[in-house]
Amino acid sequence: MRTLLNLVWLVFSGLWMALGYAVAGLVCCVLVITIPWGIACFRIAAYALWPFGHRVVQRRDAGIASGVGNVVWLVFAGIWLALGHIVAGIGFCLTLIGIPFGIAHFMLVPVSLTPLGREIVRSDAAYPSYRWSRNPVA
């Protein structure tokens, strides 16, 4: 099911979003000071290309530099990217078939607001106990 959702996502919005994040990453890498944001853009581009079956988790080793970098990102790019994901998510949720894709857009909002100090992992790696039972606490 994840593969089917990812393929439909790729056609309707994933390719364009990933391309946008990749271009932003290239621009950030050309400007040497903004290389950390460029690397974050490339991570988000990979996640935006194939989101179903992955989760965003906080990195435990992220320090104060990630927090300061996220504030700078939030002011210059994060708010606009998050608004774009919210508008697209609402648009997809207007149809019954588009609800999973709207939810995927809403899942991209936190990482588009604060990309530094986050890591994108497979869903079964984020919650390993969920794979073997329905109770994620067990």
From TrEMBL:
Residues 4-53, 68-118 form the Inner membrane component domain. The chain crosses the membrane at residues 30-50, 62-83, 89-113. InterPro entries: Inner_membrane_protein (IPR052937), UCP028777 (IPR031308), YccF (IPR005185). Keywords: Membrane, Transmembrane, Transmembrane helix. NCBIfam families: PRK11770.1-2. This is YccF domain-containing protein. It comes from Streptomyces macrosporus. The lineage of its organism: Bacteria, Bacillati, Actinomycetota, Actinomycetes, Kitasatosporales.
